[in-house]
Amino acid sequence: MTARSQALNMLRAVARKDAGGRIAHQFATDPGRMERMGVEAAGLYLDLSKQSWSAEGFEAALDLARTCDVEGRRDALFAGEPVNNTEGRAVLHPALRAAEGAEFSALGEPVSAEVDQVRRAMAEFAADIGSGAETGGTKQPFNAIVHIGIGGSDLGPRLLWDALRPLEPTIDLRFVANIDPRDMGEALSGLDPETTLVVVVSKTFTTQETLANADLAKAWLAESLSPRRMVKHLIGVTAAPDKAEAWGCGRTFGFRDWVGGRYSLWSAVSLSVAVALGWDVFERVLDGARAMDAHFTEAALEANAPILLAMAQVFNVEGLGRPARTVAPYAHGLRRLPAFLQQLEMESNGKRVKRDGSPVDTATGPVVFGEPGTNGQHAFFQQIHQGPQVVPAEFIVVGHTSEGAVDAREGDAPLWSNALAQAQALMVGKTEAQARAELLASGASAQEADRLAPHKAFPGDRPSTTILLDALTPEAVGALLALYEHKTFVEGVIWDINSFDQWGVELGKVLARAILRDVADGEPSAGLDPSTAELMKRLMV
Predict the structure, then answer these.
(1) Which end of the chain has fewer CB within 10 Å, C or N?
(2) Is 509 designated active site?
(3) Of the listed 35, 223, 298, 378, which one is catalytic?
(4) Measured between alpha carbons, how far is 18 from 142 in angstroms, rounded to an integer?
(5) Does residue 347 carry a catalytic annotation?
């Protein structure tokens, strides 16, 4: 038996024992729990004390991380080694937010000078758009941007814009991802082609959905602009600049293949956001992420926020068989965070084979879902409180979201008090005896109390982590997203999977192209399965 297998078995054994206790009781039996499980990192505070692990479970999780050499694998990532082993690539999103003059290398090739060059070009472009020095084909300044991308080319920039946009932005930034023409129609509604910039983001510049939407946007521009003038309105962000220019982009901003799509928001992929927010704001996002990088690389294992956040999930998934997790941001600006994490975590760690191609010997990434907190309370929280399945929760709480409030009662407290109360309720629950006593105290008869008490009881003992941000600043948003990136990487190390490829998305793309060929031919091809053939016939009518 390998050392990893032994450490996994130990974690499972301790988790089974911990499942027989209650989280709330751990605070009495473990006086140092809050100090050990409360972590400061890059301006964030993580409270992991409401997780299901005991002190022994916490140590078993740390021992598993040591045994799997999380710190060594982390160092390999930052050193630009081929941690994406199936594609033979380095994974260097930290290089994108490093300070100017850093010395990152990918597979031995220096890359930081190129990163600095692209970043300076982005800053100059953002400044020129903002000042009006950069104009469209008819010499009018731009007042709107349509950002076209999908997956990692959409979710990260969209999240940044939602989180940090001013109430009255000087540039109207709109996003298009869905291939349904209505998405593009809504994005273009009310815009003037002569004052609109279209930014097309595709790593390979072959993404079917993105190019289909880009063609729609180009056709819309062509109704008002000549080809010579239109190129001023088309910007490509890609690792394949030749393809972008051949398609019609008048200017391109590049990034390299060592930037995974879901890790790319720190690059030119967020050009449209950097322009619309202003370069200084985007640079502060990079600063926050860089601070989390420093914490991840320097903090001791037992006080390392990404590692502890990852190990809490491993403990739940691997130790306690909990295959889902909900994320509830109590901030309107972070409403897209659950969708961002779905791609980051489920595309990264939704794998069935290990790095060497053999079947996994563990569970891997759980299903991630969520909604803004107070919305979720009136939707799926019922199930996580009283359903038979235990679903660990993550609460993202912002201390100061409002401006101009006289005191906390009219400002932020009604929002964050809900978050604290939900985490508390998940942990402490309510027994039938307590529910019955409350019913009797409210005037219910003994018979009525007996009837309703089972319905009003909460099992409790349901784990959660709370992450506190003082305010939704660019630095805090950058640190939060980098925290989750590193957490995802650590989980991949524990499960011995490659978190940086995504072969699972390829098969559907190939089959979609085959179906489109059948549509062009007017009938399903021979050998197509009966269900798909019948559905195709009905849709082609």
Answers:
(1) C
(2) yes
(3) 378
(4) 59
(5) yes
